[in-house]
Write a structure and sequence with these properties.
The chain is mostly helical. It is 81% helix and 0% strand.
């Protein structure tokens, strides 16, 4: 995973952590979920986002990021609006993953083409 791809994915996970943190009170007030379960789900997904963002230098970080996307979508079964938000964040994370990888590949190709001592 390249530097740009890591940064873009970590940024998306940081934004998603804020949204998931703010869904915790909604989960506790609008659903029949117990307080302990609501806190575990809401705060657990928030911590998973922050952890995944911090682990982006390792393959486990990207995998955990994808797992968080699945968890955010699954949260839609408790809060229906999370189906829409989960899809939005899934699209943003996938876009950051794909576009960041493309930028890193193009940057590496450009740096290889412009070797030291050669004119661009």
């Amino acid at each position: 995973m390249g530097r740009i791809q890591r940064s873009m994915c970590a940024g998306m996970l940081g934004l998603e952590a804020v949204v998931l943190f703010l869904t915790t009170p909604v989960l506790l007030t609008l659903t029949e979920v117990s307080t302990a379960a609501g806190l575990a789900v809401g705060l657990g997904l928030t911590v998973a986002c922050v952890l995944a963002a911090g682990l982006m230098r390792r393959p486990a970080g990207a995998a955990l990021g994808w797992a968080v996307q699945a968890g955010a979508l699954a949260l839609g079964f408790l809060i229906p609006a999370m189906f829409a938000l989960g899809l939005v964040f899934l699209a943003l994370y996938a876009g950051a993953y794909v576009l960041g990888g493309k930028i890193d590949r193009e940057r590496a190709e450009r740096e290889q083409a412009v070797a030291p001592g050669r004119e661009p």
